[in-house]
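Dear colleagues,

As part of the handover before I leave the project, I'm documenting each prediction I ran so the next person doesn't have to rerun anything. This entry is a single chain, and its sequence is reproduced below.
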Amino acid sequence: FGRVCVLAVPSERFRANLEVDFAVPYMEAGWSVGSAVHVGRLAFEAAGRCVRCQAVDIDPDDPAATGPSLLAALATAQAGGGGGKGPTFGTLLRPCVERLGAGSDLSVLTLGMQVRHGSHVAELATLVPSAA
């Protein structure tokens, strides 16, 4: 996204819990709701796109800082996208209990785990602990 809008795009602005670098950029934008996503032996399903708000324009390290609007850049880059709900970036996942392997523990995710969606495979690149 940063290359498209020619802005610095720190990942912490989007407050993702997991970051995966698939070979095909933005491939998650085409995932249908309910499609299977596997992280290691854990099973998830796509629950929809993550609609973004003005929070992406706030620098978590310096809330007083100002600069170009990432939200506006995202909206411009997705002209006609977002399904009328606003600009989206990322995909929401939910655990899929029916697809979990025996003995799977949803509390254990580690860097380097294999992430699969269909025939696409990548490694879990960033893992941010949940605030909950």
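The longest strand covers residues 42-51. The chain has a mean pLDDT of 78.

All the best with the project,
I.
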